[in-house]
Amino acid sequence: MTRARSLADRVQAWDRALQAVRSHFRGQGLHEVLTPVRLPAVAIEPYIEPVRADGGLLATSPELPMKQLLCGGAPDVFQVAPVHRAAESGRLHAEGFHLIEWYRRDVDERAMQADVEALIETTFDAFARPAPGPWTRHGFLALLRETTGVVLRGDEDAAMLLDAVPAAWRVDVPETMPASARTLYAWSALLTSWSDVALDPWLAAQGGGVHIVDYPPPLAALAQVGPARLGAGEAAHRFESYVGGIELSNGYHELRDPAEQRRRFAAVAALRAGHDLLPLPEPTAFLAALEQPGLPACAGAALGFERLLMLACGATELSAIALG
Amino acid sequence: MDVSDLKKNAKLEIDGAPWVVTDFQFVKPGKGQGLYKCKIKNMLTGSVVDRTWRSGEKLVAANVESKKMQYLFSSPDAFTFMDNDTYEQIELPVDVVGHDKYFLLDNIECDVLIYNERPVGVSLPSHIIMEVTECEPGVKGDTATNVTKAATVQTGKQVQVPLFIKQGERIKIDTRTGEYVERVNK
């Protein structure tokens, strides 16, 4: 049962958490930036819908403008960015929220996992709450196998994947989509089904923090693909971090290849077209910056501010700490 | 309608029957599809099932309208209501009214739900005041509410009431739970 907090208490909690986050990153030599909220284009994602704003789009994440700063020569940066995602509303979702997003040059996603742990610890400390721990790391496919018995390699196309999963998980993949979009769709559907029936309950039962790593390449999003960190074969250098079953963070060893980035955006755009979702503009300025001057080697992560604050306050739903 | 329009009390048509969403939860695995986890109730049979939809799925809204009507009288098979605007009378079969029959006071005004021109249910006010027609004698001076006794109200409904309630007194009942709320003075 969450204790009802007065608005004055909530404002104090926000202020304390913001201060903890800022001093944490500044102490590590990162620079705070602010990037625009209304953008000409956002990262094209399969299931993240931007809010349209008078010819532009409200940022769903500050990722592209922050990477453009890095392309332009900026040092390591962080921000607490207001973001909007249409039609997301629930106990742990709000259409408007804040992402703590940060980038470090010359490191990979493993350094960002350590950052996530440290940032959570600093914030919990500020609320005199014991930080979650210990943290464990699990490869996506190994955890899938452990929690469901489903064995996959990670390089299956849509047809192979649908053959390999339980009948209840099968989805109709529109024939009209190109192969890359079909594969992305089938893997996204697998993630959704797995989360629903097995992964979420498993995560909720873990006492400490959990990083899921080594995503199958079709679910790489904006991460590089390379040798798996924990298992064999190729995997996306992407991770997601959970505390008490609640997803807090998502991070990448950032993809730098503009041709591969274009291919991935095109696959998502084709998936969106197959779902009858509104088409999104190509992020041309971001793609141009990837070409020239190019993105320096870097890793980035995003962590939901309100969810972090909620956990640090011992609350169980966002409404308990919301200011609006 | 799109699944993102789902909310509590949304009315859906599934396999030719009207369903109402009674419980609703939105969850979303990282970068996966959103899931709309619902409990839905068949408005014809009252059966409740769990259903999960994914973002992007399309649903059909049930063509359910509600009309203000007045309850007139009952027969063994049906309850008769009158449309307040047209004075037209319609009959709701006993099984469609279900437990709501215990709240149908004479001349009470309520919303009758119409699905494809067929009455499928009654939407009652959240609280109704009824008279206790039968109960054990009141215990004088005992105003504690955690000890209860059985009472019968004018529609024949049985309800648990505090010991101080006397026959002939009026009480407020919550129509959603069927439970006693408070005594109504005068």
State the helical fraction of chain B: under 10%
Order of helices and strands of chain B: EEEEEEEHEEEEEEE
Instruction: Quickly count the helices of chain B.
Output: 1
Helix percentage of chain A:
25-40%
**Residue-averaged pLDDT of chain B:** 87
Mean pLDDT of chain A: 95
Radius of gyration of chain A: 19 Å
Order of strands across the biggest sheet of chain B? Answer: 7-6-5-8-9
Quickly give the structural class of chain B: mainly beta
The sequence of SSEs of chain A as H and E is HEEEEHEEHEHHHEEEEEHHEH
- 3D shape of chain A: globular
Outline the low-pLDDT stretches of chain B: none
Provide an overview of this structure.
- The complex is a heterodimer of chains A (324) and B (186).
- Chain A has 324 residues and is an alpha+beta fold.
- Helix content of chain A is 38%, strand content 20%.
- Chain A is built from nine helices and 13 strands.
- In chain A, the strands form three sheets. An eight-stranded mixed sheet of chain A has the order 1-5-6-13-12-11-8-7, sandwiched between helices. In chain A, strands 2-4-3 form a three-stranded antiparallel sheet, with no helix packed on it.
- In chain A, strand 9 and strand 10 form a beta hairpin.
- The longest helix of chain A has 26 residues.
- Chain A starts with 6 loop residues before the first helix and ends in a 12-residue tail after the last helix.
- The model of chain A has no long low-confidence stretch (mean pLDDT 95).
- Chain B has one helix and 14 strands.
- In chain B, a hairpin with a 2-residue loop joins strand 8 and strand 9.
- The model of chain B has no long low-confidence stretch (mean pLDDT 87).
- Chains A and B meet through helix 6 of A and strand 2 of B.
